[in-house]
């Protein structure tokens, strides 16, 4: 049972449409993520966190410090270290010393890692396209624009709250 179905019977609210939309967004996100996780496991014998780490490194060809990877992925350094260790052992990622900082490492994709990631990324794109296949181009553009407004509003609120 998804979030929408579980919470459908919750107490009435004065803002039911906004709550229903929120639940719909969460449910869609969870369903699509579950499909992506399943496809990654079945077709590439990998996990979404490994794919995400490789995606971050693909955007930084010269490498990235572990601390920066952790910040970008919003997970602990311990999680990053474990995933990185696996990818190093498989020859997909390499660690390099940071000059002047013996405690830090740069991490980057190896040529093999870049090739494997590019194959996975092309397939990932197809899975996402398929997830939105029931929407036309115009619907997708409209939804993207509307969610952009929500994103901007909430980013602005986050900045105000932080001050």
Compact description:
This protein is mainly α and 163 residues long.
Approximate shape: globular
Distance between the termini: 40 Å
Number of strands: 3
User: Secondary-structure element order, as H and E?
Assistant: HHHEHHEEHH
Query: In which range does the helix fraction lie?
Result: 55-70%
Tally of contiguous helical segments = 7
Structure description:
With 163 residues, this protein is mainly alpha-helical. It has helices spanning 3-7, 16-44, 48-58, 66-73, 77-89, 111-131, 137-162, and strands at 64-65, 93-98, 101-109. A three-stranded antiparallel beta sheet has the order 1-3-2. The chain is globular. It starts with a helix and ends with a helix. The relative contact order is 0.10. The mean pLDDT is 90.
Index terms:
three-stranded antiparallel sheet; single chain; mainly alpha; about 160 residues; 7 helices; about 70% helix
Topology:
Elements: H1 3-7, H2 16-44, H3 48-58, E1 64-65, H4 66-73, H5 77-89, E2 93-98, E3 101-109, H6 111-131, H7 137-162
Antiparallel strand pairs: 1-3, 2-3
């Amino acid at each position: 049972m998804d979030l929408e179905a579980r919470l459908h019977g919750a107490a009435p609210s004065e803002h039911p449409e906004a709550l229903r939309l929120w639940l719909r967004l969460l449910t869609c996100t969870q369903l699509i993520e579950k499909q992506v996780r399943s496809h990654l496991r079945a077709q590439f014998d990998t996990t979404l966190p490994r794919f995400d780490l490789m995606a971050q490194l693909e955007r930084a060809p010269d490498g990235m410090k572990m601390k920066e990877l952790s910040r970008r992925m919003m997970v602990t350094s311990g999680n990053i270290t474990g995933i990185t260790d696996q990818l190093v052992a498989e020859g997909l990622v390499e660690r390099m010393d940071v000059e002047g900082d013996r405690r830090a490492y740069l991490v980057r994709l190896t040529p093999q890692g870049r090739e494997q990631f590019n194959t996975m990324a092309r397939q990932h794109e197809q899975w996402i396209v398929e997830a939105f296949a029931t929407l036309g181009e115009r619907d997708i553009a409209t939804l993207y624009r509307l969610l952009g407004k929500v994103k901007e509003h909430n980013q602005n609120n986050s900045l105000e709250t932080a001050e």
